[in-house]
Design goal:
single chain; mainly alpha; 11 helices; globular; disordered N terminus
Length: 250
């Protein structure tokens, strides 16, 4: 059953206005519209009174674009990266892309009041929600200068952590899955680093007096990380679908 039309209709009725989307993403309305003209964001669904409405996929794409900018990619490089993404990626898939891209250079923790935290999360957060986010290392409790409640928040994990609040899985299971992912991620990073050192860095060292080789290595270093991340995410998603299909059928 094709649910795309139904999803578009739901977004048109309940989605975010451009002002709300910009506030949630921490960007300006002008930036949202600029990305739309460059094809980095799909067009909004048109609701009542011809008002454009944006959904979770727009918010996730804005977060991914921001992270790629943090990695130092130019706008042209970001456009190429986004064009290579499968068209049917959900907001959750995009959040995974963003979280893995962020893992190369984790963001500095940001200070936030309760009101600021909830604005970025886009929802009210109960004390239980705060405890779950803290257990997932998304945030830490702190105090502001006046002795009030404050938080140190990892902006790279906040969006994904908030989504996990609504997943009907015990917190212990989520933390166990996180441990599995971290262990395998470190193992993969270790093997890729060894491969890079043996097959790329070694030959380069033998030609480091050549200016052309120096520039080539700088270019490779600047572009390899997001490309490797995209390859890892794509491989993981395909492998996960195969495992789920083998286990549960379908």
């Amino acid at each position: 059953m094709d649910t795309s039309a139904g999803n578009a209709a739901d977004t048109a009725e309940t989605g975010l206005t451009v002002d709300e989307l910009a506030a949630r993403a921490g960007v300006t309305v002008r930036t949202v519209r600029f990305y739309g003209t460059r094809g980095l964001l799909p067009p909004p669904a048109i609701g009542a009174r011809r008002v454009g409405r944006y959904g979770p996929d727009h918010l996730s794409r804005l977060a991914l674009i921001e992270e790629l900018q943090h990695q130092g990619l130019t706008l042209a490089a970001i456009e190429r990266y986004v064009r290579r993404l499968p068209e049917d990626l959900s907001a959750h898939d995009l959040a995974i892309h963003r979280a893995l891209v962020a893992s190369w250079t984790p963001d500095e923790a940001e200070e936030a009041t309760r009101a600021q935290l909830e604005r970025r999360a886009g929802r009210h957060l109960s004390e239980e929600d705060i405890d779950r986010l803290a257990a997932m290392n998304v945030l830490e409790r702190a105090e502001d200068a006046g002795g009030g409640a404050a938080f140190r928040v990892d902006p790279g994990l906040l969006g994904l952590g908030v989504q996990l609040l609504d997943v009907p899985i015990a917190l212990e299971t989520i933390l166990a899955a996180r441990t599995v992912l971290l262990e395998h991620a470190r193992s993969t990073a270790r093997e890729l680093t060894r491969l890079f050192h043996d097959e790329v860095w070694g030959p380069y060292r033998e030609q480091e007096s050549d200016p052309a080789q120096v520039e080539a290595m700088k270019s490779l270093s600047a572009h390899m990380q997001p490309l490797v991340v995209q390859a890892l995410v794509t491989a993981f998603q395909r492998s996960l679908k195969q495992e789920l299909r083998a286990t549960y059928g379908g």
